[in-house]
Batch of 2 targets.
Target 1
Amino acid sequence: MPNSILAFLVTIAVLIVVHEWGHYRVARACGIKVLRFSVGFGRPIWRRQRGETEWVIGALPFGGYVKMLDEREAPVPPQELHRAFNRKSLWQRSAVVAAGPLANLLLAVLLYAASFWIGTQEPRALLGTPLASSVAERAGVQAGDWVRAARTGEPGEAMPADWTPVASLTDLRWQVTRAALNGQDMELEVSGPSGGGRRVLRLPLAELQAGDADAKLVRRIGLGAAYAEPLLGEIVAGGPAERAGLRRGDVVLRVDGRTVADAAALRALIRSAVNGQQVAAQQWELRRGAELLTLVVQPVRVEERGEVFGRIQAAVGGPPQMDEVRYGVADGLLRGWERTVEVAGLTLKMFGRMLIGEASLRNISGPLTIADFAGQSVELGLAYYLGFLAVVSVSLGVLNLLPLPMLDGGHLLYHLIEGLTRKPIPEVWLERLQRGGLAVILMMMTLALYNDVARLLGQH
């Protein structure tokens, strides 16, 4: 918990500072006088005057602001009227407003690039047994398939000629999820574990009509976990596995005459040993070193959360094969740009789907979820934390560009209307829109906090 809180505070601080720094730098470039640069709201817990700008840290760390000279907020001396925000041209005011969200998006590009430069240890895109009745199973995915490249296209149309290399299982899951949410089909170029026997599989993802990127969608796609050899790990003393004579390192070949493709298939066979109140004994054929053995294993009946299944009380499955995923300077920057564009586009699409009811409002996350993921990513390493920070930075940039009052996108909408009508929106309407926008923001914050609590309680 302390790590999560610290990581959350660092995350919020970095994103707020960069966002407000974008507003600040462009305002200065346009000759606007900046009175205050504040990170946080409420009572100042630290302040310092540097030149004409007061630098402040507020007690409430959930945002920030840049206060500029403006006749609409306070009287401006005649000699400084040319430095007031409201006296600047429309394009200058628009540039100042847009600079904050754009700074977040630029930060995301650099954070993704830095993550790619540092590199991460990722599971190789070796697929385990696909989930039953899933898209992957129907497409012919087999345990041990190594996905080398992928490409997406519109359903019913020919696929593009170019393939996108698949760097890892994490990369594959991202590409598949993005294609499903975009309503596209996907083709996978796969080989055997040693690289031979290449073939092409088509995943008809568009038929899923995916609206939410949740666990249900992952199960419907059904790619499953990374391939793991069907061997046994730690054996619980006195448990069914030990009583049957199983040992650590045993490689299971067949169960009741059925070939065991990988650890996922072995776990499924163990779980299926229970039929109502009956638990069937199983005949296992296994390899122990150079020796082939046949043993009878009697799983025990276990009931959890209303589900009944078999268990042998032993660790099942070897570790997945890992590869280091790292890119050079140019490739890292390019992939950072591409990933930022992809995540921004997907975020906008999800907002649109939630607005028209095609996606669940459960997708909105708040500070508790951010803190939880921040802490988890820090524990995994710097590259993972930078990638997480990039995702949040993209979300913040896109959110602030939405045409809602109180957000930067709302102010840009005001400027667009001013440009079209050749006159500013009346102050009375601005006040009404601001109050309405504040109500919408408060509702979104309340919903995000509710979703956070529901996830912690296991209700989502």
Target 2
Amino acid sequence: MKAKFRLRGVAPTCEADVDLTGNAVGLGGNRYHMDCLPWDAPVSGTVYGTLLNYKGALEALGNEVNEAPYLAPPKAPVLYIKPANTVIGYGMPIPLPQGVPQLEIGAALGVVIGSRATRVREKEALAYVAGYTVANDVSIPHKSLYRPAIKEKARDGFCPLGPWVMERDAVVNPDSLRIRVFINSKLQQENTTENLIRPVRRLIADVTEFMTLNPGDILLVGVPEGAPLAKAGDRVRIEIDGVGRLENTVIPEHELVMGVRV
């Protein structure tokens, strides 16, 4: 399968064959296990997250969605931004802020936009997709959905992405992908994009109805209900069938300088 990625210290984007079974990359005539390469985030556009796009996540709110201030379930995508400071690559540490015991691990399929998309028709939506990546929409646990959770979701290093962008045509059906979260190699969560309220095509169409997505932007389709928690020292692995796996370790923030453990 063909994928595009970036390595730290290497300016251009690389394209190579990747072996999802063996977790390896063919590069420069050589084969490398993915843990041996210095991965950077494979994209540099704006990352948009989507709330309440899994059936179970919406159901878990129960009657709360019918109470003030909303009074009804969402009729359009509920979006938020993961700003540039949150984005890190495979293998880079996830900072654990002082005084926070655990972080919520948000496994998400990232849809990478390939061409400018405005008022896209649903049946044509995938033509605007360059490929797919694995995302970890990290958050400090919180309950309120009534205001933007900036302090909880927009901290430095709170959006690992990668390790690559799998080309669009290598993923036969983005609406039927198994997603698994492992913490210290133990399975903690499993779900599938079959449970999306707005499948990928419809989500792109609904979002581009009111805003333009540009090449390199990433649209996270949502986080399943029951997101697991990780503490300092935990190794987090997110796997999405046909797309790849993303691994990062949670490290206390005070042990990091410019994102590197000291």
